[in-house]
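Thread amino acids onto this structure.
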């Protein structure tokens, strides 16, 4: 018996050892079969911004073609997270335009991002942003695991967006301290729960009635209508009523409109500039951002439409409340279509009646969303339709640096008029044009034949707009057709190449000074001449896109002191003028004109007015007639200033016709400064007298 027991124990031990050896061998075989998963580099598009990706450090693959300017980049070396990841990689030189793999690492936000042009990409500057990133070559660190799939903060798939409606009916999950395996029955229970959402009760009719109140509207100057409109579209599409024989128009439309109840905002509150309106992150998290991870960053605006825009809206009594509402809807549509932002278009609103008033200026609202909200709160002021007074107000007050005006952006005014103005607009519009303001006119429901006797200034729109070629004018037959002007208007105001009135007498010229450096001038008088040149130059707006300045000094010979493309700022130009050294020698004015045509004006831009300002103190040793004629044939407008012993008849030959406006004689060098205002006035008068068609 004992032998049997021992035999059984031995058998059990033997079996255990066999199983143990088999298990170890099986584990070895299994470990041989399991391979470490291969790292897959996720691919992204050129337009993906770093702020959209939650991962703090990751490797991605960029496609080709990310050098395109539409993929915006902000910063140099360290980029704001609002930048295109791949665009920043090309800008930094880590990638070329053919694409490839890069390593991206998130870093802290900065208080200032410096823009620069590098590797075919123009990076923009940015005051501040809450998060930054740097781009490196895709060399993974040892021991660091990089994600094969990126986690995005806001880009949702259509399925995820569709699922948001069912999330509201799901039961909240029960919090647990440890992760528990999910059984098949639990999964089925969850599925059933999602499939049978809780039915929410509908609001009672009495509750709904408190949100929309119907009330009759008082009779206005030109219309009697119900102020019951919808926040989006009208519930009636009746044709506009015909005009009565008098000035007043009656609107028999009985269409019902619903108007949400909201508090009015006073003009004082809306007119004040608040730094918080600039929605660039300052380190504080907005309340909206606390409620969702999918908050889109605020747009910096469309850089292809960088304009400073003022809307002059008609708040006169004659327009009525419903038409005023339609007017605001157009403004909101324009604000949305323009993509408002500090790097693109900015927009302010002025309402006119008896007197104009600014609702908000260019820097009050720095994105389309806030601007649309502010437009919704505008209330009608009433009064007459004094458009001329409003245009004068905008010219004097609106486009200032304090109100957010940018010297690099064209100034545009869109005037909306119901019928016709009650004052004259021609003189006010002329001054606006000469100030560089591009005026557009939208005239709605113009005067009928029997109303034209009441129009103060016939053909007022053509007298007001920047050019009379039809580009700046819109004539709308009915208020219900006003929405059709939205897209054409946005397209035209953004076409900065055709905004002709942005060019003024002070910002659109290539000015070449031709300075007599002969022995008769002398060192002291030569410095006086240079001061005269400095005083003239100070009157112009100097930049590489505005007025440019060059200078030639001559005796028997000629010397190019500096060309049009050498300096692009006023301080640099003024310093260059101071450094011009006195040459001394003879006086060959004819040869100097030819030299200036070849060395200066041959390099003038086609869209610039060419102005030659020649200063001499004596008669030329060579002929000036043929060179002067050559200058005229090449479109160079020549001003001839003679001092002391200069020959009057020679000045008149050199000067552009009529000579009385382009030639000046000064008895002493010390009196040159007195002629600066007159020369500037003549330059501007000639510029502003150009045809407006």
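Threaded sequence (693 positions):
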């Amino acid at each position: 018996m004992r032998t049997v027991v021992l035999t059984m124990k031995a058998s059990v031990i033997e079996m255990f050892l066999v199983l143990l050896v088999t298990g170890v061998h099986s584990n070895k075989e299994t470990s041989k079969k399991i391979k470490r998963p291969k790292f897959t580099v996720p691919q992204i598009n050129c337009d993906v911004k770093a702020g959209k990706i939650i991962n703090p450090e990751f490797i991605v693959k960029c496609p080709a073609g990310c050098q395109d300017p539409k993929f915006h980049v902000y910063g140099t070396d360290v980029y704001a997270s609002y930048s295109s990841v791949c665009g920043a990689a090309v800008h930094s030189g880590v990638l070329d335009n053919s694409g490839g793999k890069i390593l991206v690492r998130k870093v802290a936000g900065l208080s200032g991002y410096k823009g620069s042009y590098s590797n075919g990409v123009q990076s923009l500057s940015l005051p501040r942003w809450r998060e930054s990133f740097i781009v490196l070559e895709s060399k993974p660190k040892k021991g660091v695991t990089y994600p094969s799939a990126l986690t995005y903060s806001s880009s949702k798939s259509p399925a995820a967006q569709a699922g948001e409606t069912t999330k509201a009916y799901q039961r909240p999950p029960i919090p647990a301290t440890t992760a528990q395996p999910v059984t098949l029955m639990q999964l089925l229970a969850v599925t059933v729960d999602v499939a049978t959402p809780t039915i929410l009760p509908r609001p009672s009719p009495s509750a709904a009635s408190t949100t929309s109140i119907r009330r009759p509207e008082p009779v206005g100057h030109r219309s009697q209508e119900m102020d019951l409109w919808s926040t989006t579209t009208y519930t009636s599409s009746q044709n506009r009523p015909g005009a009565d024989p008098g000035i007043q128009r009656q609107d028999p439309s009985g269409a019902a409109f619903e108007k949400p109840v909201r508090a009015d905002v006073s003009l004082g509150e809306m007119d004040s500039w608040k730094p918080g309106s600039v929605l660039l992150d300052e380190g504080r998290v907005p309340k909206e951002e606390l409620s969702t991870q999918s908050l889109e960053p605020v747009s910096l605006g469309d850089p292809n439409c960088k304009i400073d825009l003022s809307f002059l809206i008609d708040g006169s009594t004659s327009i009525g409340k419903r038409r005023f509402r339609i007017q605001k809807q157009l403004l909101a549509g324009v604000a949305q279509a323009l993509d408002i932002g500090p790097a693109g278009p900015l927009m302010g609103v002025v309402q006119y009646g008896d007197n104009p008033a600014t609702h908000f200026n260019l820097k009050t609202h720095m994105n389309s969303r806030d601007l649309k909200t502010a437009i919704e709160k505008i209330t009608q002021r009433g009064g007459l339709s004094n458009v001329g007074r409003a245009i004068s107000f905008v010219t004097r007050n609106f486009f200032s640096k304090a109100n957010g005006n940018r010297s690099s952006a064209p100034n545009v005014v869109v005037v909306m008029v119901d019928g016709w103005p009650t004052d004259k607009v021609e003189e006010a519009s002329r001054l606006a044009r000469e100030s560089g303001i591009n005026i557009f006119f939208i005239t709605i429901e113009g005067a009928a034949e029997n109303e034209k006797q009441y129009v103060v200034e016939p053909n007022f729109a053509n007298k007001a707009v920047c050019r009379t070629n039809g580009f700046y004018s819109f004539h709308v037959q009915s208020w219900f057709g006003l929405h059709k002007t939205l897209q054409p208007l946005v397209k035209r105001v953004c076409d900065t190449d055709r905004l002709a009135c942005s060019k003024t007498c002070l910002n659109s010229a290539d000015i070449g000074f031709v300075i007599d450096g002969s022995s008769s001038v002398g060192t002291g008088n030569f410095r006086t001449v240079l001061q005269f040149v400095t005083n003239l130059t100070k009157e112009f707006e100097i930049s590489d896109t505005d007025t440019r300045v060059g200078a030639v000094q001559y005796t028997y010979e000629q010397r190019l002191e500096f060309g049009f493309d050498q300096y692009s700022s006023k301080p640099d130009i003024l310093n260059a003028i101071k450094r011009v050294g006195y040459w001394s020698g003879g006086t060959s004015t004819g040869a100097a004109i030819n030299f200036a045509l070849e060395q200066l004006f041959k390099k003038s831009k086609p869209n610039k007015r060419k102005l030659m300002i020649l200063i001499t103190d004596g008669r030329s040793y060579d002929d000036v007639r043929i060179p002067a004629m050559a200058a005229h044939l090449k479109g160079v407008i020549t001003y001839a200033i003679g001092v002391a012993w200069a020959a009057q008849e020679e000045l008149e030959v050199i000067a552009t016709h009529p000579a009385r406006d382009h030639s000046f004689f000064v008895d002493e060098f010390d009196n040159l400064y007195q002629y600066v205002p007159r020369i500037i006035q003549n330059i501007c008068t000639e510029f502003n007298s150009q045809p407006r068609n």
